[in-house]
User: Fold this.
Amino acid sequence: MPIDGLKIIGESINDSVPSTHQLYNENKMYDIVALAKFQDERGAAYIDVNIGSRPASFMADLVRRIQQVTTKPLSIDTPDMEIAAAGLEAYDMTHSGGQKPILNSISLSRLEMFDLYKQQPFIPILLITEGLDKNKYSIMNSTAQETYSTAKDFVRVAFELIPEFSNDQCILDPGIMPIGGDMEGYFKRLMDSLQLIHDDPDLQGVNMSVGLSNFTVMLPSKRADGSPVKGPLESAFLTLAIPLGLNMVIGTVKRKYQLLDDDHPALQCLKDILQLNGIEVITRVMQFYS
Amino acid sequence: MDNVIEGIALCVERGKISKQSPFPPDMKDQDGADEIAADAIKQGVKPDDLLDGCILGMNRIGEKFSQNKVFVPELLMAAKAMTAVMNHLQPFLESGEVKHKGKFVIGTVSGDLHDIGKNLASMTIKGHGFDVIDLGVDVPVDKFMQTIADNPGCFVGLSALLTTTMGNMEKSVKAIKEKYPDTKVLIGGAPVNQNFCDKIGADFYAADPQGATEYLKQNV
Assistant:
């Protein structure tokens, strides 16, 4: 059963997915469009569309084709202004019941992306992993407090740039790192960031999302006893993060995400990791799947 | 001596860092890479032999990784065990008694905080006897340029994990190649591939740390 209130942005149509990359290279548009239909039927709330560095006209064509087979709104996924503009221009809101697309993503150093709003209103994913230094250069946030401050700044900027903006019309992405190599405490920092945003009355109503598959990338698919590794760890993450306001993920509709009982080994693993540092995190992850 | 090489190779392959390290469970309370290397130095074993043990162990775990028999956590543990050996070798590397095979500058490109792939490549290449200058994550192109200027003849490795930072990788490669056309630039990371490597003018796409190491060994 899907988790109540959790929206999945289906991640399959992405150039960094090897099988999709191959479909792109072989120009198998029918199969790419079929991925949209499949994700729609499996419960995706949005269909992400990432074409890598292909021409903007390719994005426009793909958006039109996908909207022929699904009424779900799309997530135009590119840092490139031209590709984003083409995708948004091609997007037809009448095909999605009047729902705006997502624009994935905007950072404080790419505020010009907001100009596209006049052309086609969208819900922006605001990357809060990076802020600006005193010289207005992009700088990666290295603490939960910095991530939270960027969230505050970014939402304020969005209010200034979009007249009808409201908190529920944006998605904050605090970034998620692979747990299998987390010797720097990224997971703890993420949870602290979610907590700070969740507790701020000025940020009530914002959506929060992460690219969930990134959490378990580079881990084995099965534990020593044959049970799965990635699904339970991702569900464990959701079990901890949803109470802190996470309500969206860019993820796969193939996983059966669920909220786990307190004694579930995957949840125990993540709770332990919140108390560990450095190489101890790695050995705890290995202990989970060994 | 063969026992020392094999002992170190086994510790590196299994990720046994030190005696007190609880991993792997079946080697609990056994000496790890740290103790074996320390004892070997005391007994007058040639430092080069310790390096050979590291290379052997890293080759073994690298092969398993390529075959999907082990995963990133095991590779990180192996790299940590190898680092324990390298710490004992550091004085010999500094004195010149053990020669570096070459110099390798590595970093994750601007805008990208991901460090796993970069760290694995860094540690693996170090374990094969290269002098590695790790610039960390979110590295601006200016920092790469300055480091190349300070280290003539070095190889450069750029890592990225996000599609949003591939553009920064391209900018970095182009800037490096414009000013230092003879500098060999390697790229790696989940969203990049051979096509992207060709497109941006990098010299080598490394699908894994072993691929990067082999390229360096062949081109040094």
In short: Chain A has a mean pLDDT of 95.
